[in-house]
Amino acid sequence: MILGDTILETRGLTKQFKGFTAVNGVNLRVCRGSIHALIGPNGAGKTTCFNLLTRFLVPSAGRIVFNGIDITHERPAQIARRGIIRSFQISAVFPHLTALQNVRVGLQRSLGTAYHFWKSERTLAELNDRAMDLLTQVGLTDFADVPTVELAYGRKRALEIATTLAMEPELMLLDEPTQGMGHEDVDRVTALIKKVSNGRTILMVEHNMNVIAGISDTITVLQRGEVLAEGSYADVSKNPLVAEAYMGSADAALTGAHA
Fold first, then answer.
1. From the DSSP assignment, how many helices (H) and strands (E) are in the chain?
2. Which of 73, 107, 138, 248 has its CA 20 to 30 A from that of 15?
3. How far is CA 148 from CA 90, 98, 107, 193, in A?
4. What is the CATH number of the domain that holds 220?
């Protein structure tokens, strides 16, 4: 696969909490059109990095550059409008709306009616075709009229990806998209991520090494808030420092390990 230029870069990204350094001088470079995985043991700083990138946390030091523009001090809404859209670790959908209605909420931004929930539903009818197209992309065509609360967990995560796609992301941040899933759902969602990555860039935090091995172009390993290693899965999985960080032994194999 030929990857593009740099879409996202952090330079010396640092976050301190009352003397504790959760992220320490992280230099991250994400190539346009790639699937880039951020992994590491518990407490390595992965989710803190995500929170910094989306400005849910304010960096203590360092810079964040997106498409060549310094976005370090922009508000979360500004960053989202630039096309950095985050899918959260816990499924973030409206449980009592149908799958179709959930996707339409994400699409309302294009109408300029994102907060006009009191408007007639007829004004949203023009979004139905696009919403159905997105549901088809994630394999939920047959569940369009099903209340989300009735969907199986794996399908709720697929719906969340559809609502994320509705926001027209240039860079998708996926926070542990397969957490809590059985093997069948993991395989389905992994295939879905690979499918929707076409023409997009994905940065993901993921614990399942089989998922990482199957779809990632580049892997950045964090340990204690710092970059420990970076490269392809083949390179990272052979790195004794990475094996030691995960398994406590330089001789341990990373394959099949869970962060």
1. 9, 10
2. 248
3. 14, 5, 17, 20
4. 3.40.50.300
Residue type, 252: A
Task: Classify residue 26: in a domain, yes or no.
Answer: yes
- The owner of tokens 């001090």 is 73
Give the dihedral sign, CA 133/134/139/143: negative
Structural domains counted in the chain: 2
* Runs of H (alpha helix) within the chain: 46-53, 76-81, 99-107, 128-137, 153-166, 183-196, 209-215, 233-237, 240-247
Q: How much of the chain is in helix, strand and coil states, percent to nearest 5?
A: 40, 25, 35
Task: Looking at mean pLDDT, say which of 92-101, 113-122, 139-148, 158-167 comes out highest.
Answer: 139-148
Domain holding 10, by residue range, is 1-83+172-190+200-259
30: left (phi over 0), alpha (psi -120 to 50) or beta: beta
Q: What is the pLDDT of residues 169-204, one digit of tens each?
A: 999 999 888 888 888 888 988 999 999 898 899 999
Angle between helices 128-137 and 153-166 (to 10 degrees): 130
Q: Inter-axis angle of helices 99-107 and 153-166, to 10 degrees?
A: 20
Is 207 part of any domain?
yes
